[in-house]
Design goal:
Elements lengths: L8 H9 L9 H17 L10 H24 L10 H8 L4 H8 L4 H18 L16 H4 L23 H20 L9 H13 L1
């Protein structure tokens, strides 16, 4: 009897597709491509026609991207995934997951203005994940975020009595573009901190450049 007759085709496929030890596909690259798709799609929608929901879904992913990139680069610095997690940033993120963007900005010494923008974006991310169903002073947008609207980043109701909610204000392509640029500037600092493996990070730099051009 041929022993191959007893082999399960699914088991055989799993064996062939099983990653080799130490070989990891960077998650941040996948997240970056997802951001790129949403940037491209949202750019083509006329905001005067209606509310575009696409950017609302992707804003929290911007922070997933920057976190995974930082973890990947710090892990690379410490030994290419061999389990030698010595980076202070990794230890900090593992112990306490709250306020991650400030921890990342502090670790890479991000300038004050960029850090301030990142915090504003993080507040918007928080409002998207935990949206408030009630209004404040007869206006769906929280008062502390209303000043941002004046800069033309957020969506604006076309008329005073236009029916909308807090998520609608974050449906702007301009917000997604601005938020992406903020995150890309931080990503640039993260990559530049790994001088030793600059040749390995070329694929990251290519992604960052493509994302800048896409917006």
């Amino acid at each position: 009897m041929n022993n191959n007759e007893n082999l399960n085709p699914k088991d055989s496929r799993r064996k062939r597709l099983k990653p080799r030890p130490g070989v990891i596909k960077p998650i941040s690259l996948d997240l970056g491509r997802i951001i790129q798709i949403y940037l491209k799609e949202s750019k083509g929608i006329d905001p005067s026609i209606g509310i575009n929901r696409i950017p609302v879904l992707i804003i929290p992913v911007l922070f997933s991207f920057i976190r995974t990139l930082a973890v990947e680069i710090e892990n690379q610095k410490e030994g290419h995934g061999k389990g030698t997690y010595k980076s202070k940033l990794l230890a900090t993120l593992d112990i306490n997951m709250s306020d991650e963007i400030n921890k990342i900005c502090g670790f890479y010494k991000i300038n004050k203005e960029l850090k301030k923008s990142a915090n504003v974006l993080y507040q918007i991310r928080h409002e998207i994940i935990h949206p408030s169903p009630y209004i404040e002073n007869y206006y769906p947008l929280p008062k502390y975020l209303q000043s941002i609207s004046l800069n033309g980043i957020l969506w604006e109701p076309p008329e005073p009595n236009f029916a909308c909610n807090v998520l609608d204000f974050f449906s702007s392509h301009k917000l997604l573009k601005w938020g992406t640029l903020v995150i890309l500037d931080i990503a640039q600092e993260i990559l530049d901190s790994d001088i030793k493996h600059k040749h390995l990070n070329e694929i990251y730099y290519i992604l960052l450049n493509e994302l800048r051009l896409e917006g």
